[in-house]
Amino acid sequence: MERGTILRVWLPMVGGLLVLGWIFHSVPEPYGLPRLIGLVVALIGLAGVILSRYTLGRSFSIAPKATALVTSGIYSRIRNPIYISGMIFLIGVALIVERPKLLAILLVLIPMQILRARREAAVLEAKFGDAYREYRRRTWF
To answer: Which neighbouring-strand residues pair with 78?
Structure first.
């Protein structure tokens, strides 16, 4: 297996599952329905982040840069699935710990993610021009 795949996919997946398991078991029993729903939601969010990172491959970066225009897989429908999946993960965690007030964090994070997405879009549009504009037209966020 390629070292990049291990670092990009397997390591975050194992780390995310360990953290999620720790969060789930750190809250005292009983494990009611909201916690179980939260676990499922968080797992969906984590899976989305991992799938997105895998699909991006070597194009993943923290700072916006235009290595390649990735339009396959989950990126064929959503331009920023890592941001969306991260928000889903956080919603799941708030449900697991049974602290709905934690959802207020989204009031700060969502505008931040929108700004990041706009900066990335500007970089991609500058490099890929019409190809990026067409991609943006047929995808969500």
So the answer is: 140
Q: How confident is the model at residue 26 (pLDDT cuts 50, 70, 90)?
A: confident
Q: What is the pTM of this model?
A: 0.84
Give 19-76 as a DSSP string.
HHHHHHHHSPSP--HHHHHHHHHHHHHHHHHHHHHHHHGGG--SS---S----SGGGG
**What residue type is 15 in one-letter code?**
G
90 closest CA partner among 107, 73, 74: 107
Domain 3-138 has CATH 3.30.300.30: no
* Helices 105-128, 81-96: inter-axial angle, 10-degree rounding: 170
Place of tokens 């549009």: 125
